[in-house]
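Contributing new complexes? Match this layout with magnesium ion.
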Amino acid sequence: MKHIAVLGSTGSIGTQTLDVVRKHPEMMDVVALACGSRIDLIEKQAREFCPEIVAVYDEKAASDLAVRLADTNVKVLGGMDGLIEMCRIPTADVVVTAIVGMIGIRPTIAAIEAGKDIALANKETCVCAGHIILPLAAEKGVKILPVDSEHSAIFQALQGRAGSEIRRILLTASGGPFRGRTREELMNVTAAQALAHPTWSMGPKITVDSASMVNKGLEVIEAKWLFDVDVDQIEVVIQPQSIIHSAVEYEDGSILAQMGPSDMRIAIQYALTYPLHLPSPAVPLDFRTLAGLELGVPDNETFRGLPLAISAIRTGGSMPVVFNASNEWANAIFRRGDISFLQIYDVIEDTMSRHSVIAAPTVDEIFAVQDEIDAYCEEKYNS
Ligand code: NAD
Ligand code: MG
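Output block (do not edit by hand):
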């Protein structure tokens, strides 16, 4: 039996993780859940899965939940301390990091320190603290298993090939809802338009990141950390149907790709059943849809999310933190309608150009950088 803790159980990845657990009751169970504030849903999840611990970041929501769950044996915790305790729960084998944003850094580190394997969806943590979590995971002997569909595809294409030499990683991108548009055509796009993703159904933050190609930029940095490759070895390929989830090209010229339906539950499940491919809740791919498979190159002039990320990781140190934190700020403010879509790039570029790089930032330094960026952006772009 694999005992699972789900950090961010009420979101898109979290609820799909619970679908995977429902499919395999004989091999998986849930020992802990956590969310930001959606206690209606987490209460239902707690009643269905009977975890030992449920953590809610919002303290008021946590006390309300404790009252609602008073008839159960579930221990309810609040705040960052609650998330950290939930990730350290002695009975868990693996923590699925389905939380959104760099708020996931401290809980993820706590889980690794406690010896838990990590099924990593929370890419912002990898981008900002890859230099901390990858060496720590190696030291503790814990596995970091990718959940992001592209990284799961790459991970699958790497199986059983130890000693082989990789030429390139081909990281696929759908191109999002605005693929093919010009800068002029992007001037007045709204959050509602950015939130209508053509192939994937995901949480709002990553959906906007997909529209801006910032998501692909975060994924290049994530791939660099997870697979220990040089950023020059990663090539982004547009695949609008999201059927080829990514590929590895070896030195002999062979390209091994992983394909499948656009259903995150396949990648989530593989992280939990690795190295086994077992029946999953996903509907199998209809091969007639493969007839329309297209491939292309990204438009880096219009969608600057990718080149800005590559520049951040080339600079290294705290620069990827700046890329990520300024995007987290801009993404949220764009969704509120307070800045335009193209201003997301201006905010990232501006904050990156002002930053004095810290070589290997500590966790405290990472959050200090975020605080500075939030204060600067509020003042300059939102007052
Ligand atoms: P989402 O917005 O649907 O869900 C986010 C979850 O995080 C929710 O359960 C929410 O309660 C929780 N959360 C937010 N702030 C919190 C806080 N302060 N404390 C505790 N919990 C908090 O997001 P999502 O789309 O599921 O994405 C989650 C992560 O997975 C992101 O890092 C995203 O980039 C990554 N990811 C998502 C997908 C996808 O298909 N949705 C694919 C690949 C990677
Ligand atoms: Mg992805």
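Reviewers usually confirm one structural detail per submission. For this one: The chain has a mean pLDDT of 97.
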